[in-house]
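Input for the complex:
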Amino acid sequence: MDPVLAVDIGGTKLAAALVEPGGRVAVYDRVATPNPAAPDAGGLDAEGLWRTLDALLGKLVTDAGSPRLAGVGVGCGGPMTWPAAEVSPLNIPAWRNFPLRARLRARYPGLPVRIHNDAICVAVGEHWRGAGRGHDNVLGMVVSTGVGGGLVLGGRLINGASGNAGHIGHVVVDPGGPPCACGGRGCLEAVARGPGLVAWAREQGWRQGNPGRLEGTAAGAELAADARRGHPVASAAMRRAGRAIGIAIASATHLCDLDVAAIGGGLSQAGSLLFDPLEEAFRTHARMEFARRVRIVPAALGQTAGLVGAAALVFAQDRYWTGRAAG
Amino acid sequence: MDPVLAVDIGGTKLAAALVEPGGRVAVYDRVATPNPAAPDAGGLDAEGLWRTLDALLGKLVTDAGSPRLAGVGVGCGGPMTWPAAEVSPLNIPAWRNFPLRARLRARYPGLPVRIHNDAICVAVGEHWRGAGRGHDNVLGMVVSTGVGGGLVLGGRLINGASGNAGHIGHVVVDPGGPPCACGGRGCLEAVARGPGLVAWAREQGWRQGNPGRLEGTAAGAELAADARRGHPVASAAMRRAGRAIGIAIASATHLCDLDVAAIGGGLSQAGSLLFDPLEEAFRTHARMEFARRVRIVPAALGQTAGLVGAAALVFAQDRYWTGRAAG
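Predicted:
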């Protein structure tokens, strides 16, 4: 069977792959997402970014010998309209209401083109070929610069009213807690996102050992590394994140009766420093028998989960591209 | 088309009805649930309770002229195994692992017999013929002595791994909040259930005007009545419940992307005293566009919602009796 051209569009990089029906990533390439503020961006606009993406995809397919394709699957940062996929990724200011699905359909005529939120694609990948495989009720989470997710229930991806189901990052874990970028307060993301933890740790006196690094993910990685070395404030930051995630998963499984919660993203690499307090908070709040049965596990697919999930939107449409809205 | 024999089994009453395919309750009867502690209970055991139920159903069907039945649908207090429905209702100590589905199948041979949690049946009723009709993504809630619910997503009832999806009462709204009967802490139910509100109001100095009444629902009703009369502590109790419900719905819609949340049960009759602070807390925590779109409405069917939903398990099995587990 022909491969799917899978695409992962984020604020840091544009990645693409040919994914085989079994889920194997056969060919892979990526470029840094052009930054309109960078000196070499040349006044990057929506069309310039599209040309960069189009060139990446064209080269990937040509280098692979121009195989026939089964379709195009894309994970892209939100928000977007769904399933029409006019995209306005928070981290990609050049695209606002950019008609990504229409463009790809024109570029790849006759092929199914299916686009979903990037965190949903990660969750789908983990359900299809990763840590949730073989289970019907799975929450996939990405804990990184933000906190995203996707929800598979009864063996099928849950889209909700507008394709926005799975926003575990905005489950409320502390009603009087810190303000969230969404406008709310005390969301899981407000507490547990990498930059939020870094800010909290700085308030407590933690300092980055390598101030030359960029803010954001890198500082978060350094915080996790300091926690592994036993730094008390860094360790406390991981506990803070773990507890918040544990509370959110308790709420989610009471509502959705999950088999598995799979946690990926940079922060999940803190290992037991994150997972031990997470489990403890979960056990405190999830006491009924059905809720205690959930298995909380690290995601299995790593960086390619989103590409594998994007391919599954095409390969396994009966599970991941369903409902009235999907067209 | 033949009617469904619909049954609603709770700690206070056993109710039964013949429900027509359009959802109309054609014939209705009920008896008080025998209380094993009462002097006239005569050492009530599991079989005694079964005989009471069987007599209620037999008389209802006979009095209606013994029509042909399309099936038997039952809502019963949890917990239970599902879909096998060996039931152990918290409020009915006489039944522990009672094989309700097997008994009803033996009593009504050849008919489909479908049993689900009573709060799930209320949610199904509200989706099928009530406040959620015509919407694909609906949370139905019952706020009363406890807080229960059921979840319809993508037009189909969500069962989860073990038939326990929909437990909105155990979404965490205040991680350091009061202990919950489930063993957890800060669950919506721990804050907003009628007896919890009554206990809180008493701590604040509220006294029941009619001390001859029973504890529980009646005290909750009196608390709501006092709130309507402007009693400051009673009003504060309604605000406390409303805020907790608003936070829980915000979390639920971020996770599930709902169209409608329908709220029934005794407490919902407090009207704007409950719904105004509920909306305010919801607006504080649900700021993203998709989340703000949810409509929060009172349930429409009242006391018969559970019977109508139990009938829908038979009449509309493609939506409400689905998945691998349902047999």
